[in-house]
């Protein structure tokens, strides 16, 4: 179906063209180009926790997302803004949508999860809650796409 010339803002949620437009947008976001220059970089990123794998020992894997509610209450952001974090040690203190800083080595690696497509992977060697570890999360919205919230170690 051709969506050329259609004012998407005027479409209702139950219009079949809305679903088609969202599918096309999701495909673009999921396949967004990744930055090879970030591969192997030691990095520290802020974000919100979306749990993926939890055991009796604690949380082992999570998605780090740029805003509160992403992947849970709203559609996932583009893959370039989602980092799949594998913690080197399980963490019992993390919960859904906690704000954290995660440090580790970044890898360019696209992966599909139940909550969205991530563009990067990170072996999380250090996780600090909220404003700990050198800076507050300003405005409640940390940046993950190489903007002001991006820090190399």
Keywords:
153 residues; mainly beta; OB fold (Dihydrolipoamide Acetyltransferase, E2P); five-stranded mixed β-barrel; 1 helix; 6 strands; 41% strand
What does this 3D model show about the protein?
With 153 residues, the chain is mainly beta. It has 2 domains: 1-30, no CATH class; 35-152, OB fold (Dihydrolipoamide Acetyltransferase, E2P) (Beta Barrel). It has one helix at 16-30, and strands spanning 42-55, 58-65, 83-91, 99-113, 116-129, 151-152. It is elongated and about 50 Å long.
- Decide which structural class fits the backbone: mainly beta
Q: How would you describe the shape?
A: elongated
Per CATH, the architecture of the largest domain is Beta Barrel
Strand content: 35-45%
CATH superfamily of the largest domain: Protein of unknown function (DUF3299)
Average pLDDT, rounded to a whole number, is 84
The name of the CATH topology of the largest domain is: OB fold (Dihydrolipoamide Acetyltransferase, E2P)
- Helix count? 1
Strand order across the biggest sheet?
A: 1-2-3-5-4
State the major sheet.
5 strands, mixed, barrel
Summary?
The chain is mainly beta and 153 residues long. The protein has one helix at 16-30; strands spanning 42-55, 58-65, 83-91, 99-113, 116-129, 151-152.
Strand-helix topology:
Layout: H1 16-30, E1 42-55, E2 58-65, E3 83-91, E4 99-113, E5 116-129, E6 151-152
Parallel strand pairs: 3-5
Antiparallel strand pairs: 1-2, 1-4, 1-6, 2-3, 4-5
